[in-house]
Amino acid sequence: xxxxxxxxxxxxxxxxxxxxxxxxxxxxxxxxxxxxxxxxxxxxxxxxxxxxxxxxxxxxxxxxxxxxxxxxxxxxxxxxxxxxxxxxxxxxxxxxxxxxxxxxxxxxxxxxxxxxxxxxxxxxxxxxxxxxxxxxxxxxxxxxxxxxxxxxxxxxxxxxxxxxxxxxxxxxxxxxxxxxxxxxxxxxxxxxxxxxxxxxxxxxxxxxxxxxxxxxxxxxxxxxxxxxxxxxxxxxxxxxxxxxxxxxxxxxxxxxxxxxxxxxxxxxxxxxxxxxxxxxxxxxxxxxxxxxxxxxxxxxxxxxxxxxxxxxxxxxxxxxxxxxxxxxxxxxxxxxxxxxxxxxxxxxxxxxxxxxxxxxxxxxxxxxxxxxxxxxxxxxxxxxxxxxxxxxxxxxxxxxxxxxxxxxxxxxxxxxxxxxxxxxxxxxxxxxxxxxxxxxxxxxxxxxxxxxxxxxxxxxxxxxxxxxxxx
Length: 471
Known about the structure:
This protein has 471 residues and is α+β, with helices and mostly antiparallel strands. Helix content is 55%, strand content 13%. It has three domains: 199 residues, no CATH class; 130 residues; 98 residues, no CATH class.
């Protein structure tokens, strides 16, 4: 079907990019195919977040009987095969095949014989008992629903028999009205039903809830095992607590974590609830003949089943997340107490180190002690002691595995480089004094001091990388 229709949008080869999901019904193209054997027409449309195709294949007026359904179905499936690979089912909401036929008679005419005709001629075959019961509208449309709602394929079939006198009414209900664009009541109803089917299929293919719960509980139990010694007053490694807590956090807040899943489930319930409201608005009034529930009631049952399942799973996930949050809170409290003790200890160590240096300098000054140093060595030794006073507290802090952020790494690096420069300067001057080459020339002390700074920075860089590497 490629021939355009006068006054209608031209047929499209591909869908245009960037469709607006907020717009109402928009026709994307209408096409027909000239044929003496039947009627062929189709149109593509977009409405909000759905893009759809509605196609009509009908025999000419001289052909009668339900046996014409199978040739039309073969023609349709052959056309789909010739069009190329079918898109992934993950992107298809649902495909509904509506098989229509007209019958002569009024009232109860054919109610007993039509089910046998449907069983014999329906392309879906007579498996099961779905053909024994049908729904009937006020206009006399008799509808058989061959969907068992258990198939993983996004495909359903409806069979509709209508009185000949209501042919135009059937077209207006299921296909189109002359001179009007838009979805007809049946098509609109099926579009909302397709959304429910799609969400059900997508949710059924997702990871099982008990698997998520078991994994999260295992991570929670691992953290609790690490924390267990604290209940008896025994010390526990902060690194082990942080590792277990980080693993638990990834399970809670990662892209496939509990928090992400719970919020997605809320969105899913909201989406299906909106679809249910729209289904109720467009549900046709029908009466049931034979066993089973009405077709609209079965569609609503699918939606309500999805909502109940998702809400039940959500309760389990929220309870699981509460357990994880409780364990994480305990871990945070223990970690915070340990870090406070750690900070106090580090402060004490730093104070002790600086106090020892200051005490030594004070005693030296009070006793007027003059170290037996050559005048040439005094300047490099003073720089060496000053750099040690700067680097020693930082070394104690980092040796205790205290975290350091990038903006403060320059202080560590500067202290290490200064210590290396001072050590290089002191070493070369001491060599010169010892071997009688003092004062050492400037062209010798500068390269040696620079080499000492580079060696110190290289050693610091290797130590910092090894220390920062995850366990």
